[in-house]
Amino acid sequence: MSSHGVALRIESVTKIYETREGDPLPALDPTDFEVAPGEFVAVVGPSGCGKSTLLSLVAALFPVSAGRILIDGEEVRRPHPKVGVVFQTDLLLYWRTVLDNLLLPAEIKGWERRKYAPRAEALLEQVGLAGFGQKYPSELSGGMKQRVALARALIQEPGLLLMDEPFGALDALTREQMIIDLQAMWLDVRNTVVFITHDIAEAVFLADRVLVMSPRPGRIDLDLRIDLPRPRRWHIHAEPAFLEFTGRIRAEFEKRGVLRER
Amino acid sequence: MLERLAAPVLAVAVLLVWQGAVSLLGISEFILPSPWAILKRIYIDFALLFAHTRITMLEVVGGFGLAALAGVPFALAIFYSRLVEKAIYPLLVGLQTIPKVALAPLLVLYLGYGWAPKIFLAFLISFFPIVISTVVGLQSLDKSLVYLVRSMGASERQTFWKIRLPAALPSVFGGFKVGIALAVIGAVIGEYVAAERGLGYLQLQAHSQFDTTLNFAAVVVISLVGVTLYFVLAAFEARLVFQRDHAR
Within chain B, which residues score under 50 in pLDDT? Predict the structure, then answer.
């Protein structure tokens, strides 16, 4: 598949929530950055720094308080058809089979089911779940469910894939395999990805660029280009170049008091 | 195995003790008829019981049906409209403190002696649990699921049909099952107050003739009405609702 990634542009975007008492609660300080078509960008930051907020804004789940978000040159006001989202939990519908879960976006967008069923089967194979179409989510492991969730986002052929700590709930081994598989799949598609995580090594391994966010209200403190060659092998984790990147991100967190030696 | 047999074994044991006590202690049939005598009476008076069962059954189904038809849309109104929720929901909960059966004599005053007061009482008593369960089912949805379909560009209408309704169905049916059991109570109480037909009326008749066996027979049939309707609902539920823990 050729690249069909779309560009993302964040222009002075701010988000201020309101507390129950009506007080303003800033979640995101004015933020600016750009993601080129086909680029894989990871956003790392401590819990509650607003990185998930940022993603929800790009997905148009909430309106921005100020600033603009442009996807493929268009200002975002409602969920963009070229955007697919993978959430922290799989969010599969337990009353639907795996195949019917995969076809949910097609149903909602009013696409013809017959046309997309073969594509769904192909995607299942791609995520390593060939033959699982007629199973129910309750019959799958946590890792398998998250693979289905990934396939469900991919069936929309998203020019921009948003991933919100997608592997955060998985055990370490499953997570490692998912990271490896995600890189392989992305190298096939080369769409634009914004990947939210709090795991520094995961971010450096997967991304072309890592954006480091400060604690709430979040803003981007560091924009680091990761020019490690691809495809990256797992043992790259032990190489000096890799460690230098993770070290720089860690130093940024230490500077902000997110991490502290004792 | 032992666990599965426990309930039937206990039930049979209770019936045997009852049967044995009645014959051994020589208790008169007027005070306590034996299970066997009740069973025989149901067989002998089947036509009579059946005729009255039909009436009671129709009252129950009528009242429950109206409660379901009105209760679910009402729950939707409460769920979707803050104004309706704030204005009506507290009143509804407050009204729930009135024991519905205490209204039966008044309903006769207003609605007469025919079908209306029984159906209305069955309706009234089953309406509340249906509304509450449906509202709770709709409100307990994981919000992330709404975000998921919104990110796919779903309208609220699509969100309702694809997510909200299927996720709430188990609760809705929970309300239906409570409601149908209560509707039986409502209909029979209605018949106690003023009726010329129905199982409650038959009980009053049996009572006035010191026919305790027929009275018990009516109790058994009333229970059967409740159980039957419950299982009809359960069968619908099995077809419509996917049970979370049991993969088909």
Answer: 247-248
> In this structure, are residues B189 and B173 in contact, taking their beta carbons and an 8 Å threshold?
no
Q: ipTM of this model?
A: 0.90
List the single residue in B with minimal CA-CA distance to A105: B152
**Does B157 lie at the interface with A, CB-CB under 8 angstroms?**
no
SS3 B194: coil
Q: Select from A57, A69, A108, A160 the residue whose CB has the most chain B CBs within 10 Å, as the one to mutate to test that interface.
A: A108
Q: Which residues of A touch B165 (CB under 8 A)?
A: none
Q: Show the 3-state SS of A177-223.
A: HHHHHHHHHHHHHCCEEEEEECCHHHHHHHCCEEEEECCCCECEEEE
Reported as a single tens digit per residue, the pLDDT across A158-203 is 999 999 999 988 999 999 999 999 999 999 999 999 999 999 999 9
Task: Give residue B247's pLDDT.
Answer: 45
| Nearest CA-CA distance, residue B48 and chain A, Å | 46
Handedness of CA B94, B97, B101, B104 (dihedral sign): negative
- Stated pTM of the model: 0.86
What does the alpha-carbon distance between residue A88 and residue A250 come to, in Å, rounded to a whole number? 23
Query: How crowded is residue A127: how many other Cβ atoms within 10 Å of its Cβ?
Result: 22
CB contact under 8 A, B247 and A81: no
Contact assessment for residue B201 and residue B195, using Cβ atoms and an 8 Å cutoff: yes
